[in-house]
Amino acid sequence: MSQSYNSIKPNVIDDEMLQKAVEEQWPEDIGRLAKSEGIDLKNVTELQLGFRNILQIDNLWQFENLTKLQLDNNIIEKIEALESLVHLVWLDLSFNNIEVIEGLDTLVKLQDLSLYNNRISKIEHMDTLQELQIFSIGKNNLTALEDVVYLRRFKKLRTLNLTGNPFCEEEQYVLFVVAHIPDLVYLDFKRVSDTTRELAVSKYHYLIDPLEHEEAQALAQLEEKLAKQKELEYHKRAFVEYLNGSFLFDSLYAEDTEAAKLAYLPGVDDLLQAYRKDFVSVCENLFNYGLKEYEKREAEVSEFYEGLHEVLTANQQEGSKIILDFENQNKERLDEIHHATSYNIAESKRAEYNEDILQLSETLMTLEIQTADQLEVRFKHIPVKPPIQDARGLFFCCCTPLHSSPLHKEGRTTLPVSLMFCLNVGLSLLRVDLGGVRPWTLIRCNKFLFLTAERGISLTCIQADSQSFRERGVEVVQSFHRTEYRSLCMVWDMHLGF
């Protein structure tokens, strides 16, 4: 079935072998020229490395645009080092000593794969080969007919060769394969007849129906997952991902061990639930606002590019017309220069022609300047800052009144959960020292910053230390710290920026 290298000297794929292989597959004259001038392996699309006693696949990363690779009739034991051959369409690994199908994940364009005459005992690890149309895995060690079910995932598979495997001796082999791969056209070098197809469906419908149901469910789940991913990507572009629900609050609260302890105190659980409700409401409002502004921004960008295309197209058309008119008008002058009866006449005509060329250059330059002016006017209508800046970074962090809580001691109000303020700016991380207390932290979440304060920080610290933020370019316009206010509001002037 396969070869042994006990009596054969194994070879490795080195530069010399590759150079020789490339030269051999070209015509003799081109091969000599390539040999003398050198070969850029990036331009090679086909490579034949059969019958060379190769033991290990290696050194093929240089063939970036390879579409066809022959490695048949060697002594290869493992499929490897093919990751960079992403354009491969045709791969022949027949007549080797391969035992496991692997190393094919990146070959997503592969259409024709031959693993004929190897030592493979299971069909696996081929999920990414969705373009596969022809597959030959005859004369291997496939014993379980159920392995054929794996091939149902290849919707474009039309030609299959399984002949020579142990399971081919089973009586219902052909009907089983045809039933499970209904779009198969050729099996073991023979065309699948309509009669065979009908018999296969009739005999194995009790197996196929549940399979199709499971596949339909899996497809529906996949489509749902892809739809969610698409939606999430859209939300990320709008900088509002995970704000349409309780994800943000839950993820922050899940890591808050202190808040979990506080929940056992009388009345605190109700406060936390109210806080969560208000927090989620704020997130959803911000989410809706962000999406609305993103859609407006997208419409503005689309309108701009449409206008840009119109301006450039008009410029090109006008320039082409000016050049065409120039050629038509000066065709006679060129003829006069060519047929001038004297040198002086030719020089005179040539001077006039040069003057026309200069005038043409000035006309085209004027047109270019006009286009630049039109584009400049359009650029001025593009907002310098993202539309979401209109919100001026306003974010409400809702806190239940705590003056009646046992946590209210000695005139100080302590937050049961982390206090957060959202800033529409672009820092990554900033530790703010408020003087004598544990620091606040600005944590970047995409386009937003969350200012968190650990529990135990008095609300009065916010007003007392607002200078710390002014020094960093953020002005606290207004702040409230009285416990009778249900909502603690801070308005940040975003025009100062960072």
TrEMBL record:
<protein>
    <recommendedName>
        <fullName>Dynein regulatory complex subunit 3</fullName>
    </recommendedName>
</protein>
<keyword id="KW-0966">Cell projection</keyword>
<comment type="similarity">
    <text>Belongs to the DRC3 family.</text>
</comment>
<keyword id="KW-0433">Leucine-rich repeat</keyword>
<keyword id="KW-0282">Flagellum</keyword>
<dbReference type="InterPro" id="IPR050576">
    <property type="entry name" value="Cilia_flagella_integrity"/>
</dbReference>
<dbReference type="GO" id="GO:0005929">
    <property type="term" value="C:cilium"/>
</dbReference>
<keyword id="KW-0175">Coiled coil</keyword>
<feature type="coiled-coil region">
    <location>
        <begin position="343"/>
        <end position="370"/>
    </location>
</feature>
<keyword id="KW-0206">Cytoskeleton</keyword>
<dbReference type="InterPro" id="IPR032675">
    <property type="entry name" value="LRR_dom_sf"/>
</dbReference>
<dbReference type="Pfam" id="PF14580">
    <property type="entry name" value="LRR_9"/>
</dbReference>
<keyword id="KW-0677">Repeat</keyword>
<dbReference type="InterPro" id="IPR001611">
    <property type="entry name" value="Leu-rich_rpt"/>
</dbReference>
<keyword id="KW-0969">Cilium</keyword>
<keyword id="KW-0963">Cytoplasm</keyword>
